[in-house]
């Protein structure tokens, strides 16, 4: 199971809102899917549907929006963690969050807002000097919008529905064929992935952190290049 931004691809920037995907990545993932008998998945904060544009119709499972969305294959319907009025409330809340965050970002150079289906990200990779201000803004906003939680990361402050995190997404995957009964492996790079590391560790699996920083993952890869080389060695 693989995180996407910061793990498989470099983070987006203010000048490149869509992450740059290595043209070899789709083929690499296809080979990994075959090597694992289909037990390969993306676990991301991005919405599931975004990966049709980013990767094409690859036959792999995707847990998106921090476990709030799930799709087994490109032809499967997207399943949501909520439905009806509860889902509508989240969607309406995201509109309000987008307006508030966009207004705040306009006041700080190098900060921009990215929508990811049912989550929203305040990105400041290019303006780390405003990190404390950004986290405080996000924290204060969540206090008045209790349907959302702050997911702080390296250069990001992400708003996600309180009912979801990546640990939930991984747990959902592990309950399904072909993941059930296997030893889970999860590679991720930031604080949003720590919930995933915890559940993988509890299941006796292997969790791998990309880059520096304290982590619940006992293993380490240096950057996205090393991640792709590691995957290539498995998929060969």
Automatic annotation (TrEMBL):
Catalytic activities: alpha,alpha-trehalose 6-phosphate + H2O = alpha,alpha-trehalose + phosphate
Pathway stated in the Swiss-Prot or TrEMBL entry: Glycan biosynthesis; trehalose biosynthesis
Pfam short name (any one): Trehalose_PPase
InterPro entries: HAD-like_sf, HAD-SF_hydro_IIB, HAD_sf, OTSB-like, Trehalose_PPase
A Gene Ontology molecular function term of the record: metal ion binding
Cell division as UniProt keyword: no
SUPFAM superfamilies, sorted: HAD-like
GO biological process: trehalose biosynthetic process
This protein's name: Trehalose 6-phosphate phosphatase
């Amino acid at each position: 199971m693989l995180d996407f931004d910061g793990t498989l691809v470099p983070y987006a920037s203010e000048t490149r809102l869509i992450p740059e995907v290595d043209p070899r990545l789709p083929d690499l993932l296809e080979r990994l899917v075959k090597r694992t008998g289909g037990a390969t998945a993306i676990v991301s904060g991005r919405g599931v549907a975004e990966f049709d544009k980013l990767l094409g119709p690859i036959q792999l499972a995707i847990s998106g929006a921090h476990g709030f969305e799930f799709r087994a294959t490109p032809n499967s319907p997207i399943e949501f963690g909520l439905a009806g009025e509860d889902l509508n409330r989240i969607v309406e809340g995201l509109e309000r969050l987008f307006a508030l965050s966009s207004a705040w970002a306009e006041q700080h150079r190098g900060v921009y807002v990215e929508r990811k289906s049912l989550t929203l990200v305040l990105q400041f990779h290019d303006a780390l000097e405003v990190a404390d201000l950004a986290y405080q803004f996000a924290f204060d906003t969540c206090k008045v919008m209790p349907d959302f939680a702050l997911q702080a990361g390296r250069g990001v402050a992400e708003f996600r529905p309180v009912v979801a995190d990546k640990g939930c997404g991984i747990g959902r995957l592990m309950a399904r064929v072909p993941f059930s009964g296997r030893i889970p492996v999860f590679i991720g790079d930031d604080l949003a992935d720590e919930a995933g590391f915890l559940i993988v560790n509890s299941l006796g699996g292997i969790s791998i952190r990309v880059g520096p920083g304290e982590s619940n993952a006992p293993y380490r890869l240096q950057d996205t290049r090393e991640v792709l080389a590691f995957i290539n060695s498995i998929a060969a």
